[in-house]
Amino acid sequence: MKLENRNSELETRKPKLNWKRLLEIHNPSYATPFSIFDFPFSLFAFRFSDFDFPFSVTGKMKSKTTMTLDRVLSRFGLASRTAAREAILAGRLKVNGKVVRDPDLWVRPDQATLHLDGQRLKPARKTYLLFYKPKGVITSHGDPAGRKTVYDYLGDIGKWVSPVGRLDKDTSGLLLLTNDTEFADHVTKPGSKVPKTYLVKTSGILSEETVTRLNSGIEMKRGDWASPISVRRLEDRGKYTWLEVVLAEGKNREVRRMIEATGFKVLKLVRTCIGPLTLAGLEVGKWRKLTPSEVAAVRKSSAC
Q1: Which of 98, 120, 142 is the last residue of a domain?
Q2: Mean pLDDT, residues 281-303
Q3: Which of 42, 66, 79, 126 is the most buried (most CB within 10 A)?
Q4: Other beta carbons within 10 Å of 123
Q5: Smallest Cα–Cα separation from 182: which of 69, 67, 75?
Q6: What letter does residue 287 receive in the DSSP assignment?
Q7: 139 in the same domain as 23
Q8: pTM score > 0.90 for this model?
């Protein structure tokens, strides 16, 4: 009862919180499945012998750079592995003039000529985008229900890129998209320890004990554990606590589920950083390309 009275007084005395202002206060640097197979392959003409990849058409891996057909297309930024497998299984890919329907066939690009739909392939130019995803938009190339997707905001450049991880429909904030699968793997794999930072508004005031519990790692309802890099209280405002949560892993709806494991819910969730990258200077629904120095910084990033 005393807590309710105190919260009521706080609501009366304090103005409504602007989360962007909160970011500026606590982070001074903060200032105000695609498929390549959707477009013609007449754009491409190349010989895999131009690239130094040793590769055998036997069934066993001969070296670390030997790879399966689906991975060849994916590594060259031509498609997701799922889309590549579908095209190969459909008989659309030829290796040295013969149709191959086995996406798991091991090959070496310097010893093979590949054609898709009759056109010779070449690696796509590497593209890296930073997008400020709005709330209510899904991270998908298409939606049977007709909901708005991130690709509705990207225009023609969206044909070339896939999301690096995902943000659920009710989460806004920083989303990377690229056709560089090695870069995407680096960002998403927990072992790379690339931090992802979130601003979280909870459904009540969290005690110090609860924040400490979150920081120490917490078991979620599915039996898996959340092990954040850090959980920091930014502010208690009215009836709500605002947290900064930093993760290196990317389990499904992890921030929401770890808060729910404490008996609270997430009312607002914004991803504000991936490594050193922030939303600074970018409006909701807008995107920009990463610079080469930013790409390099993400590859060796620590907490932002």
Answers
A1: 120
A2: 92
A3: 79
A4: 18
A5: 75
A6: E
A7: yes
A8: no
Burial class (CB within 10 angstroms; exposed 0-12, middle 13-18, buried 19+) of 130: buried
d(CA 147, CA 182): 30
CATH of the domain at 109: 3.10.290.10
> CATH no. for residue 16?
3.30.2350.10
Determine, yes or no, domain membership for 256: yes
Positions annotated as catalytic residues are 168
Residue type, 177: L
The two three-digit tokens of residue 292, written as one number: 């080469």
Considering the domain boundaries, does residue 304 fall inside one?
Answer: no
Residues comprising the chain, all counted: 304
Residues of 176-204 as b/e, b for ≥16 C-beta within 10 angstroms? bbbbbbebbebbbeeebebbbbbbbbbeb
Give tens-digit pLDDT for 106-129: 988 767 788 888 888 776 789 999
Residue type, 244: E
Task: Indicate whether 113 belongs to any domain.
Answer: yes
Domain coverage including residue 89: 45-120
SS3 170: coil
pLDDT at 29: 53
Structure tokens belonging to residue 10: 């706080």
